[in-house]
Design goal:
Elements (H helix, E strand, L loop, with lengths): L1 H17 L9 H24 L12 H21 L13 H24 L5 H31 L5 E6 L2 H13 L5 E8 L14 E4 L3 H8 L3 E4 L7 H11 L5 E4 L11 E6 L2 E6 L10 H33 L4 E7 L5 E7 L6 H12 L16 H8 L7 H6 L4 E3 L6 H5 L14 E3 L1 H4 L7 H13 L3 H17 L5
Parallel strand pairs: 1-2, 1-4, 2-3, 4-5, 10-11
Antiparallel strand pairs: 6-7, 8-9
């Protein structure tokens, strides 16, 4: 059996080393450039046509002649500014906000340069055209980058357009990074192997990452495996001089060196890298859970819930009538949940199950092998006919808007837990109770009931530690897509 395992590992190593990385990645900047060129040119043409209808600046004269003279310089200058700001560097594609920041800053600088240039050269460029061209092109450039990113993420989930990655470090650190990269497949990192210290004699890590060599052989193994990126995790090298030597050895090859510190689930807003005496120090700001409890978020919750109650009141009335007519039972289902700082409250939902649902719960627990966490199952026999539609569209949770209005819940936050769940919480899991539970959250837009218990907890803790108002707005926007797709809703 041992010889068979060694043979399988050897074949796997040979296959990994002989494979080649995705060459299509080099075309990402060119694709973005062509898309930007098309968007800017199209918006310039629309601005010429729309200028004739504008009455706010000058007379509706034909500006085609002036634009024909300066238009190509504007388009070329705009694209050149995007290039100077690094909007076409391969490292900005796929994740983070850096790409959008660079496009926005470069576009604003291009607009300023055009305005100043026309003033200095005394070119009589139409103000209407200027406003329309830059006012239209900037949002469409951002939308275009967003569409390209979604297409890239979709391709990476299908296993294409990926970076080949080697991870160097101790086995435990390697598995931490490999676990994150495998979970977040949209990042496009395909872990092809790892490098461990010379004293480590294992053939593969606990997660099954094959060991291709020792950390001090990093340069030769990277080149032999055709890796695009090498991650250096904790325990990889014994000194900074070794790291510097590897960087020097790889500087003439198309290989990116990444140092992965031993921290996970930290948002970029909390991380500051400050070089001191040539030593890059990572500063991590304190968790932001206290900010999520302040008056600004509460005011947003109050105004938002009140507006949504008014907007959805006809829909809630129809749902209440259907529930009542079905079996004459109560319209609302009240369940004790745990809120901020462990306070109990009565969570409101439209009743979607038969009136004796709690009596049938023990039997279902035994049949499904339930152990802990929130119990949910597909095709639950306790769900009523009107309840199926309400659950699929998450309309059963609309009464929780009144919980938000009363301050017991928030529009966005961790899922409100049951008392039996809280009783089994470990110390780190209890951090979920630092903020008000939410009607929606990262768990809702990331799979809902399809998530494992541990993954749902991880997302809730990430939200608590990295709260921001921008993240709340993003989650609310994504909630509509999650609700209408009905993914994970049952």
């Amino acid at each position: 059996m041992g010889n068979l395992q060694m043979s399988i590992i050897s074949e796997q190593r040979a296959r990994l080393i002989s494979a080649t990385p995705s060459r299509s990645l080099r075309y990402l900047p060119a694709t973005a450039f062509i898309a930007d060129l098309a968007i800017i040119s199209a918006c310039a043409a629309v601005a010429v046509l729309g200028r004739k209808e504008l009455r706010f600046f000058d007379s509706p004269a034909d500006v085609s002649a002036d634009v024909a003279m300066v238009g190509p310089f504007i388009v070329a200058g705009w694209l050149f500014t995007l290039f100077l700001y690094g909007a076409y560097e391969r490292s900005v594609f796929g994740a983070g906000t850096d790409e959008f920041k660079r496009v926005t800053n470069a576009s604003l600088v291009a607009a300023a340069l055009v305005g100043v240039g026309c003033y200095i050269t005394n070119v009589d460029l139409s103000r209407g055209f200027f406003v329309l061209a830059f006012g239209l092109a900037l949002p469409f450039l951002l939308i275009g980058r967003g569409v390209q990113r979604r297409a890239l993420h979709s391709a990476r989930r299908r296993g294409v357009l990926r970076h080949r990655v080697l991870i160097a470090g101790s086995p435990s650190h390697i598995d931490e990074i490999a676990g994150v990269l495998r979970r977040e497949s949209w990042l496009g990192y395909q872990v092809v192997g790892c490098l461990t210290p010379a004293y480590d004699l294992t053939e593969e890590t606990r997660l099954g990452v094959p060991v291709l060599g020792n950390s001090d052989e990093a340069t030769s193994v990277v080149l032999a495996s055709g890796a695009d990126i090498i991650f250096f995790a904790g325990g990889a090298l014994g000194s900074a001089n070794q790291m510097r030597k590897v960087v020097w050895d790889l500087e003439h090859h198309d290989v990116q060196v990444v140092v992965a510190p031993s921290v996970t689930d930290i948002s970029s807003e909390r991380v500051r890298v400050r070089p001191v005496g040539g030593l890059p120090l990572m500063h991590i700001d304190p968790p932001a859970w206290s900010d999520a409890s302040r008056w600004g978020k509460r005011l947003f919750d109050f105004a938002g819930s009140l507006g949504l109650i008014l907007a959805f009141s006809p829909l809630m009335l129809i749902a209440a009538i259907q529930i009542k007519l079905f079996d004459r039972g109560p319209v609302l289902f009240r369940q004790t949940r745990i809120g901020k700082d462990g306070a109990e409250f009565s969570c409101l939902k439209f009743r979607t199950m038969v009136t004796n649902a709690e009596e049938l719960l023990a039997k279902l627990h035994a049949e499904q092998g339930y152990e802990n966490g929130l119990f949910k199952m597909k095709d639950d026999p306790r769900i009523t006919r009107p309840g199926k539609l309400l659950r699929r569209l998450s309309l059963d949770e609309l009464p929780q808007l009144f919980n938000v209005l009363r301050g017991e819940m928030s529009l966005v936050g961790p899922r409100p837990p049951l008392p039996i769940e809280v009783a089994s919480y470990a110390a780190d899991t209890a951090r979920r109770l630092h903020v008000r539970p939410g009607m929606t959250g990262l768990w809702q837009v990331s799979g809902r009931s399809d998530l494992s218990w541990s993954e749902a907890i991880r997302l809730d803790l990430y939200y608590v530690d990295n709260w921001s108002m921008v993240q709340d707005l993003s989650i609310l926007a994504k909630t509509f897509g999650a609700v209408f797709s009905s993914r994970g809703a049952y």
